[in-house]
Amino acid sequence: AKAAVNPQPEPWPEIAGRLVVNKWRRDVLTVTPWLAPIVWAGTFDPDIIDEAVKHQNLTIATTVFAVAKYTRFLRDFLETAEKHYMVGLSVHFYIFTDQPNAVPTNVTMAAGRRVSVIKVPKFSRWQEISMRRMEFIEKAIEEDIRHKANYIFCVDVDMQFHSRVGAEILGRLVAVLNPWLHKSNRDNFSYERGTVSTAHIPVGKGDFYYAGGFFGGAVGEVHDLVKACRANLEADRAVKVEARWQEESHVNRYLLTNKPTKVLSPEYIWDEELGSGGAEIQVIRYATVRKNMKEVREN
Ligand code: U5P
User: Fold this and answer.
1) Ligand 1 atom 13, closest CA
2) Who's near 167: CB < 8 A, 6+ residues apart?
């Protein structure tokens, strides 16, 4: 039920004529130790944010991969994105798929929003499909996206938007707290611990456990990220190791050195298997679709 609720923040309070940010969230961490905001419902005013970006004429590239059976998720992804994702802004969706004919063509898109389809091969293992995303995004940024967009977000497709995901997520380098581990002690994070992999993070190190299914930022910054992860995935392949959570492990390693300038709460990549979450989850914005993992990953 929570997923359908749109947060209706109370009017922003004022002290001495100035808007007071963050009055209502004392229950969660709202800023990182390096002073990047952590975005939760109640920490921002959507109207002020929308007003602030309205005149900037921004284009936001958004990549999703739909390979093999994952094309079935495209329609709901796109339809719910039209309702909740960057509403009022120009969004250019890049759909990477092995089956261009399976991309729905009759989803009504608002003005300034469009879809491009990029054909990619179908790798046999789901891990391979997931990891290879880095190199295809890198190439698409170089050939096309850097000439067209200000920001890029790279997201999983087996997901639906349930509530606002808007300009509050824009930043130079943006990562999302993995909903499975956002309350966990750092030594329980599922980082790659083997020292052979370039994704290795030793016990005692690490800030947060970020999700592999949602990252983004300014196009140049994201290009640096995907390029570094692609190179590290190749280095691992050359010595025949695969990090514990494939490219998610590499994203976490990259973000340890290159701190995100904005961190999004698990509201932005919820997993329905976690139910409605604890009291700190006031709204679910983007969430996985329940699926039979084994069936959908079998090629
Ligand atoms: N993916 C596919 N086809 C597959 C496996 C994965 O397109 O057979 C892509 C989807 O974009 C999916 C993402 O959202 O990789 C991550 O995979 P998963 O962890 O959601 O299964």
Assistant:
1) 156
2) 49, 50, 52, 53, 58, 86, 89
Taking alpha carbons only, the member of 52, 54, 97, 48 closest to residue 72 is 97
Query: Which residues contact ligand 1 via a Cβ below 6 A?
Result: 64-68, 70, 126, 129-130, 156-158, 297
Bridge partners (DSSP) of residue 90 are 59
Q: State the catalytic residues.
A: 248
Among 107, 123, 127, smallest CA distance to 115 is for 107
Its pTM stands at 0.93
- 1: pLDDT strictly greater than 50: no
Cα Dmax for the chain? 62
User: CB 76: neighbour CB atoms within 10 A?
Assistant: 17
Residue 213 CA, closest ligand 1 atom number: 16
Q: Which domains does the chain have, with CATH numbers?
A: 8-297 (3.90.550.10)
